[in-house]
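Page 42, continued from yesterday. The earlier attempt failed because a stray header line got pasted into the input along with the sequence. Redoing it now with the clean sequence only.
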Amino acid sequence: MKIATIFGTRPEIIKLSPLIPLLDREFNQILVHTGQHYSYKMDKIFFEDLGLRDSDYTLNIGSGTHAQQTGKMIIKLEEVFLDEKPDIVLVQGDTNSTLAGALAASKLQIPVVHVEAGCRSFDRRMPEEINRIIVDNISDYLFAPDENAYNILTNTECIRSEKVYLVGNTSVDACKQVIEMFNNESLLEYSLEKGNYILFTLHRQENTTYDELREILMALNIIADRIKVLFPVHLRTRKVIAANNIDINDNVILTDPVGYKDFIGLMINSKFVMTDSGGIQEEAVVLNVPCLILRENTEWMVYVEMGKNIIAGTHYQKIVDIVNDLLNNEIKIDKIKQIKVPVNEGASEAIVSVLKKEFID
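This time it went through. Structure tokens are written below.
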């Protein structure tokens, strides 16, 4: 049986990393990299960190509008599928690569497998939310990461339950693989002390318009007067900062994006993390690090409802107030860490087991 696994961004590479070697053992697997992320710092370094083999196809799509990216991907992916004739196409998450892979396969009547199905922010202004909804509704095998996602698919959206499998989250497997690989001397490189800095990331399209970015960075500058902040800067975010000459507090350490194992290590050693990334929200829970979400909503509300993660929003005063409250009350941070969240390993094995049963056994 031949399976084509499609990806194109940092989060997909990370979340598929424990699954890819297992699929290689059981299937004739073709790895197709769309090139949605294409710089070394956002792409190749993650293959190296995670010990992944090279892709069989690299489509070199690059940047562009959502329509341009998705359209080019569909055209090139169709060519690959017609040439390789895969029996299954697997996609992960909610990116344009995910959408293009699912659409191209569905049009050719190739069964679609969606890993991390059922996540919803219920905010259709987010391009990722549209991608999630469309991909789930054209997929043939939907692997849900938690009961909330499973119930959204089977109850709220009335997708047939026989298509949906509750398997857990591959992010757990990925985190556990690299958790011991971080060299603590990296803290010295950035002049950081364990537990005495905040790890900060910001990259989403809606947060990197000038007005939104300025608002969030106003909060960052105020926070940095109290505690050091390490800010690995996404290429999109850096361009907006540079184009608008936005001032950054000297107590904010700006770096290029870092590799996965280094990022995980920096997160473990931080006081807490502030981010608009869905993937980092998951990783923070696995690592038991408090996470402030720089968005008005999230597809991982299950963790917010449990009290593990906090929606800080995008208005500078609200962000500052929440951060100051945590910095003034160490007990609150301890209470967040004491909340137990089941983060069971084995999602990747469960996915492979289902696919073997359906397509091989």
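Notes: The first strand starts at residue 2 and ends at 7.
Reminder to self: strip header lines before submitting.
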